[in-house]
Every structure is written in structure tokens, then in C-alpha cells.
Specification:
Blueprint: H1 5-16, H2 25-33, E1 38-41, H3 48-58, E2 62-66, H4 70-81, E3 90-93, H5 99-110, E4 116-119, H6 121-124, H7 127-133, E5 138-143, H8 163-170, E6 176-180, H9 185-194, E7 201-204, E8 212-218, H10 223-233, E9 238-242, H11 246-258, E10 263-266, H12 272-283, E11 289-292, E12 305-310, H13 317-324, E13 334-340, H14 342-352, H15 357-375, H16 380-387, H17 404-407, E14 412-414, H18 416-428, H19 435-443, H20 448-452, H21 457-460, H22 469-482, E15 485-488, E16 494-497, H23 499-506, E17 512-514, H24 530-534, H25 539-558
Parallel strand pairs: 1-6, 1-7, 2-4, 2-5, 3-4, 5-6, 8-13, 9-11, 9-12, 10-11, 12-13
Antiparallel strand pairs: 14-17, 15-16
Helix pairs in contact: 2-3, 14-15, 18-23, 19-22
Bound molecules: adenosine-5'-diphosphate and magnesium ion (MG).
């Protein structure tokens, strides 16, 4: 096929109505059109689908697209059908089709009508389909969400492992296109190896999402009120609020609802029908907000999600990037707001504590990066991109001013002497204490260290009492992130000195500590909590109310508090 730039532009305009390619799309498409194996690494929202859809529409034969989720495939098929007068231009082949439907799909392929055939990996293993497809003209085979092939990715699917052998059976020479939004080298290596395409032309786009605004707020007990305020300020816009637990998802969805925000919950504990219904309500904009666990995400192709809020901080930067990546996929604004409290990190650490040490170490290292991200005073965009091995110019780079730290720089102050004191306490008490015990000693709150270290009694107890314990905790975290101290995994959280810490002791240096934001920790009475409102109506709620009153009366007679009865 002889093609020039204008042909491609025309095709883009004709099929999709877009006037320009985004990023590497054009190069990728050229590589595919020249029948070469092609590997595409682009962040979520980068426009990967178009990379295989456009060449599929332009080529002879049918392109097979492997994708992990039925919902994802259906969305895409609907979108493609809407640009063509022929419904058969795109089909999904899956186990739910009856005989007549399968025959129609096959006829459309044989007649050259079908340009895109979407299949789930498990359907592709069916003998009947393989036997049929190997007789057809296949333009290329695209493996979307290719990271599912790797155990190192965040969404491993064993069925993806068989793809290579099936592709071979359908046709030795069919070009393969792998697409993913996962940027870590280990996953990329796995994909190339498992799909047998080490010779692939690789295209890696920048992971910078300049239209996303990154913000971290401290998580106080007013977090729900703060979220409601945020959502109301963004009334009419679509957004996702992520929570860690199903219980919290339910509670928060209710709280939003009773405060006049149209919201639905989404988590794996809901039955499939409810999940599908809630997802549709979000897509159709019957509700503005989905409160969800991470179960909600990969299948969501809603380009105008305007905010992604993390009620709970996720367990890695990679997850955070993926989840926030669902905002602003149309290139418009996208606000990524995370609530952060160190307590949540400790909770996540506790979840890991039963796991093998090696796994804990990885988990802990990933969490440490999350802490560093949340507490950093540098450009958050620079931080994230650095994590993916990318340089970013925090002054002139695209989207440089799109984060809270750049817009409102945090204050810092010299804390070199305090770091020196802290490291000394750790060192002289034998590196056997956890953060809390060290802090208690510094502020003179508990004498745990003194009992076991009488000799150091005078030197440490209460020496840091001009500062609050919260201050010392924050300093310890910043010193951990800076690498002068480390937490021991085997002994669960005991603080030790690193080599850098030891040399700091010998050669004291400057240490610029970031001032923690101070937020008033009062309860906002203007917000109705779901449980309060629940008492207003419903037979069950009335019954509960009556029981409560009864308990109070009995307790009063007995002269004990109600919770005893
Ligand atoms: P990815 O799969 O990489 O996460 P998608 O393929 O779902 O991203 O594309 C994200 C959005 O960008 C879609 O709404 C798509 O229509 C849009 N898009 C893709 N390419 C272009 C383009 N060249 N011009 C305008 N919009 C585009
Ligand atoms: Mg995609």
C-alpha cells in the first residue's frame, strides 16, 4: 500500500472526524500499515485504540483485537459502528453469542465486511474459532492491555499467556501489535517475550498528562465534608471517588446522596447486575459521581471524567497514576485530589504483615514512594514522571504549574540540628525502637527508652519537647524518605540508621524540613452523615430508634451507661 501523510490525515478525518494525530499515533499507524510487529506504550487516555482502529479500517482483511473485558469491547464496537453505515464493520466474538449470531459474524468476515473483530482471550482458545480464523484474511492482531500477560503488572490474566501459540496457529506471519499503559521495564520485557516480538518497533510516549492537576490534602476527620464541598463546587461534572474498603464506599455514597450529590457505589461485592447498572448510570450521566473501590476502572471509557478523588491513598504510585489517568481523557481539565494521612499508610502496612518477607519488602518500598509523593514539596508532576524514568522540566515543561506544590509552594525551615538529635537518639539507644517510642522520649512523654537505657537518661528525655509529637513524627517520615533512616521489615517497623545517616552524624548537614499544612480538625456540622439521616425514615430505622430509647431507659433504671445494656 502506498501511503502519504495526506492519505492518513484524510482517513483520520473521514473515519473519526479528528483533524490531527495525537503524539505518536501517526508513527505507530505507519508501522502497523507496513506489517511490522509494533509495541505501543502510552498512558491511559493517550489514544491507543485509534492506533489499531484506523489501520484496521484501511487494510484489507479483518484485524483481530484481543481485549480483557467485554464491556471495553462493547464500548469500542459501538463507537466504530457509529461511524459506518455497515453494522458488520465491527463485531465481538464471545461465549454469549448463539449459533445464528456466530454465523452472522462469520459471514461478515468471509464477505470482507468486518474490519475489526474483538475477542476475549478465552474465546480465542476455542478450536472452532481458531479453525475458522486461520482460513480468513487477517490484517493484524492487536493485543490491548497487553500488561495482562505479565505477573509483574497490576492486572495479570493467565489466559493472556496462551496468546502466542494461538496466534501462531491462526497464521505464522500475522503482524502483532501490543498496547499497554504500563511503563515499568519488567512488564515491557515480559510482553515482548511472551508475544514473541522482540523485533517489534517500540513506541513509548511521554507519561506526562499536562491537563491533569495534582493535589494532596491532609486527611482530617472532615474529609467527607471536604469531598462534598469539592463535588458541589464542581456541580454537574463527572467524577470518581476511590475508597479502599467496600464498607467505606457504601457509606460515602450514601453520605453524598443525602447531601444532595447524585452518587452511586461500585465494588466487587455488588452483584453483576447492580454493577452494570451503576456503571451505565455514570456513563449516561444519570449520576455525577461513582464512589468505588479499584474494581471500577479498566472498562471505563468516559472521556470527560473531570475529577478523581482518592479518599484513601493507594498502595503504589503506579496505581495512583492509573487511577487518576481516568480523568480528562478528552484532553480537558482533570483534577486529581488525594487525601493523605500517615495512619492510612500504617493500615496498608498492617495488611501486608502476614505476607512473605520478600513481598513485604516490595510492598513497603512502593508505599514509601507514596509517602514521599504525598509529603513532597517539589513539583508532583516531576515526582511522578521521575518514577517512570522520565525527565521533566518543572519550570517550562508542559503542565508545569498544574499542581498544588507549584501553585502554593510549601514553606520549609532549617531542621539540621533536629535531625542530628533524632539520629543520635536512634544510634545511642541501639537501633531497637519504633518511631512512636523515639518520639515519646523526645517530647518527654513516656520513659520506655529511659528504663532500658539509664545511661542516656539525661541526654534524651524531653530534649525535643519544644516541638509537638506530630512534628517529630513528620520529621522522622521526611528523614526516612531522605534516606538517613530506614524501617526494618523483619522486626516490623524498628527504626535503623542507614549509611547516609551514619555519615550525617559525623558530618552534620543542613536539612530543609517541609512545614506540614496545619488544618483545623473540627467537625463540620453542616454536613449530614448518612447514619444520622438514616434515622429519619424507614421501618427498620424506627425500630432501631425505639430499641435505643428502650436501652437508655433500662440503663437509667439500672444506673449504668447505655452501652452496657
Ligand atoms: P487509551 O486506550 O490509550 O487509554 P483511548 O484510545 O481510549 O485511550 O482514547 C482516549 C480518548 O482520546 C478517546 O475519547 C478518543 O476518542 C480520543 N482520541 C484519540 N485520538 C485522538 C485524536 N487524534 N484526536 C482527538 N481525540 C482523540
Ligand atoms: Mg485503551
Amino acid at each position: 500500500m502506498s501511503l502519504n501523510e495526506t492519505d492518513l490525515q484524510d482517513a483520520l478525518k473521514k473515519y473519526f472526524g479528528f483533524s490531527q494525530f495525537r503524539g505518536l499515533q501517526e508513527e505507530v499507524i505507519k508501522s502497523i500499515l507496513s506489517k511490522q510487529n509494533t509495541f505501543v506504550i502510552m498512558p491511559t487516555g493517550g489514544g491507543k485504540s485509534l492506533c489499531y482502529q484506523l489501520p484496521a479500517l484501511m487494510c484489507r482483511g479483518t484485524a483481530i483485537v484481543v481485549s480483557p473485558l467485554i464491556a471495553l469491547m462493547k464500548n469500542q464496537v459501538d463507537a466504530i459502528r457509529s461511524i459506518s453505515s455497515q453494522e458488520g464493520i465491527a463485531h465481538v466474538l464471545n461465549s454469549s453469542l448463539n449459533k445464528t449470531e456466530v454465523k452472522r459474524v462469520k459471514d461478515d468476515i468471509v464477505n470482507g465486511v468486518t474490519k475489526l473483530l474483538y475477542v476475549a482471550p478465552e474465546s480465542l482458545t476455542k478450536e472452532e474459532y481458531v479453525d475458522f480464523l486461520k482460513e480468513q484474511e487477517i490484517s493484524f492482531l492487536a493485543v490491548d492491555e497487553a500488561h495482562c500477560i505479565s505477573e509483574w503488572g497490576h492486572d495479570f490474566r493467565p489466559e493472556y499467556r496462551n496468546l502466542r501459540s494461538i496466534i501462531k496457529r491462526i497464521g505464522e506471519d500475522i503482524p502483532i501489535i501490543g498496547l499497554t499503559a504500563t511503563a515499568t521495564p519488567k512488564v515491557q520485557e515480559d510482553i515482548l517475550k511472551n508475544l514473541g516480538m522482540n523485533d517489534a518497533n517500540t513506541f513509548k510516549a511521554s507519561f506526562n498528562r499536562p491537563n491533569l492537576f495534582y493535589e494532596v490534602r491532609p486527611k482530617t476527620k472532615n474529609v467527607d465534608a471536604d469531598i462534598i464541598r469539592f463535588v458541589k463546587q464542581n456541580a454537574g461534572k463527572s467524577g470518581i471517588v476511590y475508597c479502599l474498603s467496600r464498607k467505606r464506599v457504601e457509606e460515602l455514597a450514601q453520605t453524598l446522596e443525602v447531601n444532595g450529590v447524585k452518587a452511586v457505589p461500585y465494588h466487587a461485592g455488588l452483584d453483576a447486575k447492580t454493577r452494570a447498572k451503576h456503571q451505565d448510570m455514570f456513563l449516561m450521566e444519570d449520576v455525577d459521581v461513582v464512589v468505588a473501590t479499584i474494581a471500577f476502572g479498566m472498562g471505563i471509557d468516559k472521556p470527560d471524567v473531570r475529577f478523581v478523588i482518592h479518599h484513601d491513598i493507594p498502595k503504589s504510585i503506579e496505581s495512583y497514576y492509573q487511577e487518576t489517568g481516568r480523568a480528562g481523557r478528552d484532553g480537558g481539565e482533570g483534577h486529581c485530589l488525594a487525601y493523605y494521612s500517615y495512619k492510612d499508610i500504617e493500615k496498608l502496612e498492617k495488611f501486608m504483615s502476614g505476607k512473605p518477607v520478600a513481598e513485604q519488602e516490595i510492598g513497603h518500598a512502593l508505599l514509601q514512594e507514596v509517602v514521599a509523593y504525598a509529603e513532597t514539596s517539589m513539583s508532583r508532576r516531576k515526582f511522578i514522571l521521575h518514577y517512570f524514568g522520565e525527565e521533566f522540566d518543572e519550570v517550562h515543561g508542559e503542565g508545569a504549574d498544574m499542581d498544588d506544590n507549584v501553585r502554593n509552594p510549601k514553606k520549609k525551615h532549617e531542621a539540621g540540628d533536629e535531625v542530628q538529635l533524632l539520629l543520635e537518639v536512634v544510634s545511642k539507644t541501639g537501633e531497637i525502637y519504633k518511631a512512636k517510642e523515639i518520639v515519646n522520649t523526645l517530647v518527654g512523654k513516656s520513659n520506655a527508652l529511659i528504663l532500658s537505657h539509664k545511661t542516656n537518661e539525661q541526654s534524651f528525655f524531653g530534649q525535643g519537647k519544644s516541638r509537638e509529637d506530630k512534628y517529630w513524627m513528620a520529621l522522622i517520615r521526611q528523614v526516612l524518605v531522605a534516606g538517613y533512616l530506614k524501617k526494618d521489615i523483619e522486626t516490623y517497623g524498628v527504626i535503623k540508621l542507614t549509611e547516609a545517616g551514619k555519615s550525617f552524624l559525623v558530618n552534620p548537614q543542613s536539612f530543609m524540613m517541609t512545614d506540614d499544612h496545619v488544618y483545623a480538625d473540627t467537625t463540620d456540622e453542616s454536613i449530614i452523615t448518612a447514619s444520622k439521616s438514616a434515622n429519619k425514615g424507614g421501618a427498620d430505622d424506627k425500630l432501631i430508634g425505639m430499641l435505643k430509647d428502650l436501652r437508655k431507659k433500662v440503663a437509667k433504671k439500672l444506673g449504668v451507661p447505655p452501652f452496657v445494656v
